[in-house]
Structures are given as structure tokens and as C-alpha cells.
Specification:
Elements (H helix, E strand, L loop, with lengths): L1 H4 L5 H12 L2 H13 L3 H29 L3 H7 L4 H43 L3 H8 L3 H20 L1 H29 L4 H9 L9 H14 L6 H7 L7 H32 L14 H15 L2 H37 L3 H21 L1 H31 L2 H9 L9 H25 L1
Helix pairs in contact: 2-9, 2-13, 2-15, 3-11, 3-13, 4-5, 4-11, 4-12, 4-13, 4-17, 4-19, 5-6, 6-7, 6-8, 6-15, 6-16, 6-17, 8-9, 8-15, 8-16, 9-13, 9-15, 10-13, 11-19, 12-15, 13-14, 14-15, 15-16, 16-17, 17-19
The protein binds 4-fluoro-L-phenylalanine (PFF).
Length: about 450
């Protein structure tokens, strides 16, 4: 059955695709931004701990649900259900994840469109079209609609091709490109004056801050967003993994790549901010904190690139291409969630379903763009601060409380016969049952 519905052809194919989903604007923009606004290295430390101790177990739960069910999130969860109540609950959780992925894509596509437009600006400058250069980076309705449409077109283009020919092939091409660009940019920024001061701010934690509630909440939210949890995406990617693979190590490898790239992105952005400061750019807001959010990516960094002269045009281009590539490998996974649901549950052909859902999500983006001041923040908060944690928590509840322990073990043993004797099996089931849902709930309630 798996063969007819698509499967990753190799282990590396899955790793690239899942890491591609995980590594996105959240790593390269969100993580450094959060680090900047939460006191630097203390945030990095807490993030690393929470990513491995809370996000990884929840990530494993989602992968396992998918690999067991060999289907979209709703069908997979329903296969684990024994009673009518469980089945209804499965529908709410699975479908909630699908909707969450669609909502995220509707605003993520707009941000990704900005990345493409900022990558085009230096090109327009080089070819002497100053008017076009200023148009692409100025906020306007037509600019936002055009670049969101371009980005959605690319996303639909990949997903129409299916698992192996689309998701896997493109993730395998784009992820190495992303890593190469990131390393080149870090190496370059490190040669500039001010970088070592930034490195110090990034790597020297102020231990007294690590238990601050706001810092903890931001770090956990960031870790969940980064691993694409609570969106049905990792369930569906799990369903495309061969039964011969060892899920425990695959999950750990993807988490490690995701965390490492976030860490590398911080190694680029925070020193780059201090380099910008050495060149006269203001990097601290009025309250003394480092500038974060959109100001960082669209003001501080472009001022830095500008101060580099001709070289800056190339660096700006490379940086925004990096952002666009990272966004694309994530957006394809967001579209795969709803597409796989419609293909498998409503028997609609993949190409048709992809185009239809792509257009629908694009229309949602247009609605957001037309009232961007209010809607962008509203949808982002709804999907990432409410939707993702609630659904991720319910997936843990499913695995911990509804799925039988013996069945979980049987599924884990496929591709990992010795799992019963490992530390993972001694800790993880108990952890997913009690600690993960409780911790997510505490953080969620606190954030309210
Ligand atoms: N993990 C992506 C990032 O860090 O940018 C964002 C993301 C991808 C969220 C896929 C949700 C999702 F389903």
C-alpha cells in the first residue's frame, strides 16, 4: 500500500525532507530574533534543552503515529482508535492539524514572498533599475500579492510532483544549498569588525535569566514551531518512511540538524548585528534591547549590506536567497498536510488537489494581505501559539493514553529490533504520557 501512495526512497531522502520542513524562517529569522529579544545566550541554552527534552519526544510521537497508520493524520489516528469516541477525537486532532498547516502556510507564504522580493532588489540595482529596486522592497498591496503568488506557485509546483519526485528530490537539492550559503555568509561576517563582540553576546549566557517565564515560553514555542509540530506534517512525513528504518535515530538526526541550523543562523545574525553597529547602524531599541522582529531582517541587515558597498549587493542576494530556500522546503511540507488528506480521504487526484488547495490558501493569503496590519498577526498567533501547542499536546495524549503500549513497541521494533532494551524505551513512553502533555499545558496556560 505504501508503494502506491508514495514513500521516501532513501533514509537521506527522509532526513532532507523532514529537516527541510523543520528548517525554515523559524530557524533563520525566528530563532535569532528570539535570541536577540531574550537576552542572547541564556535563550540559546534553554532552547537547546527544551528542543531535545520536550520537542523531540513530541516529534517522535507524531512520526510514529504516521508510520503506524501509513496514511494522512486523520486516518492514521483513527487506526489507533478503538471506540467511536476515540475516532471522533482522532478526527478533531488530525483535521485540526491539517487546518493549522493551511493557516500557517497562508501567512508564511507572505513572509516568504518578502524574502524573494528582497533577493530581487540587489539584482535590480546591479542591472541599473533603481525604480524596480525600490518598488520590490516597499510595502504595497500589488507587491505583496505578486510575490506571495510566486512563492505559492513554487510550492504547488513541487507538491504536484508527489513524494519522491517532488518533496524528496527538491529537499535533497535545496538543503545542501542552504547549508553552503549559511556557512559562506558566516565565514564572511566573521572577517568583519564587531563580529567577535556579537559572538560574545551570543555565546556567553547570563545564567540568572534561564528561568524567566517569558524566556521559557518563547523557547518552547520556538522549538515546537521549528520542528513543525501540531500541524499533521510530521505525521504524514512519518507515513512515508519505510518500515525498515530506525525511527528513533532518524528523529534524533532531524532534531539535531534543525537545532544545529538554528544555532548556525544565530552565529550569522547576532555577530552581523554587531558588525552593523560597528558601521554606525543602530542595533538597540529605545528600551536598550537588541532590535528584533522585522526590524532586524528588513532594517538592520539591509543597512549592513548597504555599508559593504558592491560586495554588499552580493551578500544581500545570497542572504535572501538563503531565506527563500529555507521557506520553500518548509512550505512544501505545509501544503503536503492538506493535500494528502484530500487525496486519501476524498479520492481526488494529487495534481488537481494540489492546485485546488494551493489556490484556496493563496486566496486566504490575499485576504490577510488586504488587511495586513491586523490579520497577519492574528492568524500567526492563532495558528502557532494556540493551534500548534494544543494539537501537539493532543497527539501526545493519543500516543500516551489511547494507543496500547504493546502496539507502540511493535511499531518501534520495525527497523529497530533491540529498542526494548534501550534507554529510549525506558523513558519515552512514560515521558510522552505524563511530562510532555503537562509541560505543554503549563506553558500554554501561562501564555494566556
Ligand atoms: N518549521 C518551520 C520553520 O521553522 O520555519 C515552520 C513550519 C513548517 C511550521 C511546517 C509548521 C509546519 F507545518
Amino acid at each position: 500500500m505504501a508503494g502506491s501512495r508514495g514513500e521516501f526512497s532513501s533514509r537521506i531522502g527522509f532526513i532532507m525532507a523532514a529537516a527541510g520542513s523543520a528548517v525554515g524562517l523559524g530557524n533563520i529569522w525566528g530563532f535569532p530574533t528570539q535570541t536577540a529579544s531574550n537576552g542572547g545566550a541564556a535563550f540559546v541554552l534553554v532552547y537547546l534543552v527544551l528542543a531535545f527534552c520536550l520537542a523531540y519526544p513530541a516529534f517522535m510521537a507524531e512520526l510514529l503515529i504516521g508510520r503506524y497508520g501509513q496514511a494522512n493524520a486523520v486516518t492514521s489516528l483513527q487506526k489507533m482508535s478503538r471506540t467511536v469516541f476515540h475516532k471522533r477525537f482522532a478526527f478533531v486532532v488530525g483535521f485540526g492539524g491539517v487546518i493549522c498547516a493551511a493557516l500557517i502556510l497562508s501567512f508564511y507564504g507572505i513572509l516568504a514572498g518578502w524574502m524573494i522580493s528582497y533577493a530581487i532588489e540587489p539584482v535590480a540595482t546591479v542591472i541599473g533599475s533603481d525604480e524596480a529596486a525600490s518598488w520590490v522592497i516597499a510595502q504595497s498591496l500589488p507587491r505583496n500579492i505578486i510575490f506571495t503568488a510566486i512563492f505559492m506557485f513554487l510550492t504547488v509546483f513541487v507538491i504536484r510532483r508527489g513524494v519522491e519526485d517532488g518533496i524528496e528530490k527538491w529537499s535533497k537539492r535545496l538543503m545542501p544549498l542552504l547549508l553552503t550559503l549559511l556557512i559562506i555568509l558566516i565565514a564572511y561576517v566573521f572577517t568583519l569588525e564587531g563580529a567577535s563582540e556579537g559572538l560574545n553576546a551570543y555565546l556567553n549566557p547570563d545564567i540568572s535569566r534561564v528561568l524567566e517565564p517569558d524566556l521559557l515560553i518563547s523557547a518552547l514555542g520556538q522549538a515546537f514551531f521549528s520542528l513543525s509540530l501540531g500541524t499533521s506534517v510530521m505525521v504524514i512525513y512519518g507515513s512515508y518512511i519505510s518500515k525498515k528504518e530506525n525511527l528513533v535515530t532518524l528523529g534524533a538526526q532531524v532534531t539535531f540538524i534543525d537545532v544545529s541550523i538554528a544555532f548556525l543562523a544565530g552565529l550569522l545574525i547576532i555577530p552581523a548585528m554587531y558588525v552593523a553597529q560597528a558601521q554606525g547602524v543602530a542595533i538597540f531599541a529605545e528600551d536598550g534591547s537588541l532590535i528584533s522582529g522585522s526590524g532586524l531582517v528588513f532594517t538592520v541587515l539591509p543597512s549592513l549590506f548597504e555599508s559593504m558597498g558592491a560586495m554588499g549587493l552580493f551578500v544581500a542576494f545570497a542572504f535572501f536567497v538563503l531565506m527563500s530556500v529555507a521557506a520553500l522546503t518548509s512550505s512544501i511540507s505545509m501544503l503536503e498536510g492538506p493535500v494528502s488528506y484530500v487525496v486519501e480521504r476524498h479520492n481526488i487526484e494529487r495534481k488537481k488537489a494540489t492546485t485546488f488547495i494551493g489556490v484556496l490558501i493563496f486566496l486566504m493569503s490575499v485576504a490577510i494581505i488586504s488587511n495586513i496590519g491586523v490579520m497577519l498577526d492574528f492568524i500567526a498567533t492563532l495558528a502557532t501559539e494556540y493551534g500548534q501547542p494544543i494539537i501537539a499536546m493532543l497527539c501526545c495524549v493519543f500516543v500516551g493514553w489511547i494507543w496500547h503500549r504493546s502496539e507502540i513497541l511493535k511499531e518501534l521494533q520495525q527497523g529497530n529490533e533491540q529498542v526494548e532494551n534501550t534507554l529510549f524505551w525506558k523513558i519515552w513512553p512514560w515521558y510522552t504520557k505524563f511530562i510532555c502533555p503537562t509541560a505543554i499545558l503549563i506553558v500554554f496556560v501561562h501564555s494566556l
